[in-house]
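Now for our target.
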Amino acid sequence: MWMQDHRSWLFWLYLLVVVTIPLIAAQQQISQLARIDDRGVLRVATRNIPTAYYEDAQGPAGFEYDLIKAFAEERGLQLELKVVRNRKDLFELLRQRNVDVVAASLFLSSEREANFPVSEPYAYAVSQVIRLRHDGDGPAATSVADLVGKRVLVQAGSAHAQRLQELKEDLPGLEWEETEDMDLADMLEMLKSGDADYLISDNMALSLYAPMYPDLEVAFSLNAPQPLVWYLAPTMDQSLTKAINDFLTSRSTQDLIGQLYEKYFEHTQRYDFIGIRAFRKHIQSRLASFQAWFEEGAQKFDWEWELLAAIGYQESKWDNTAVSATGVRGIMMLTQNTAASVGVQDRSNPEQSILGGARYLREMFDQLPDDIPNPDRTWLALAAYNVGMGHLQDAMDLTADAGLNPSRWSDVRQYLPKLALKRWNQQTKHGYARGWEPVIYVRNVRLYREILRLENLPFKAELSPPPKLPEIHVFDRIPPTL
């Protein structure tokens, strides 16, 4: 009798387990994504690096940031970012389930995939072996074997370091230096100073630094294109993974990824200027349509009209239909937020755009400390117009910390490019910025302004031959001596 009751009890216990476990699992599968939806917040870990997340003049930016934000917005979620300094911290947050997703320009890794769910690939990148050409350099390496005996840099914990470890099995003499404290820009500086021979990074990140390093040379690729993925917090169900994969593989997201790639990794085209001859041609063919508004903006906001016209040419080449990959548009290339703040309702309307740009430049000028005299005050305001007041202030702080004059443009422009370097931008409030861009921007605007002044305008239907100018070229990159 006891055995019968015992078996009956075991039977009902077995039945209970068989029935409830799938129900619990199903409930968890529903609740994982539901918890996030109920919370109304998607928690994301990332890094302050140029390929993932940083702040620019318009606010938060970055390929990864824009993409994960689009996913959050599609689900009606707010985005909560946790910005960390290294890869190890990313995965510690994920392991402790303090974040839902890691989006930080990470390659697919079999070791990480064994511990964390991964998304479908959203892009592919190639590990490249890079050097900077110096006078007297011989031929570049063409294979991994050529790296034996060379000083090679790679970021610690990266897929590139893992690949080198695999290759070392066949090449015991292969050595490299892994660093966690330096980012790509810092390692490029080591190449420039001759403290290293090669570095290894991915082609997407390297494309961002081309304007800063004209002697950048790809020696060879370390492997075929590899997938970039998002990593997710470990869980018993796949609801979040499925939602993310559905998003990433949709046609609309694929189109968005193409737009973001153009926006962030083909940005150097924004400085593909067409030269002084073309500028003079545009003075004759385009300026007449807009000059009256440049003069109105100058009078209303106390500027030289030539300065405003120079900004307009730098921004759009005086094309009121211009639209950039970043979504700014019009003669003065205003963002939606900036346009709204200065009362511009239609950015494609040239009068509104020019007057709005003139007002915004005046706001940047007035935000600077009162003791900064002209012309430095104007050049600093131009830099803020391009990169944002926050990043300009960061560069001014670095300039002051170095014992130089933060009120002098010639000093500050030396520290703006350093905002792209990890060892510098970690000291700042606003982090990474493409600090070389405002330096180029201010130089070009000053050049265009001077030419307009020398052309002895106002505009005439037929201009007399322009005065002979010294041989000057529009800057499309920072000279190595800067």
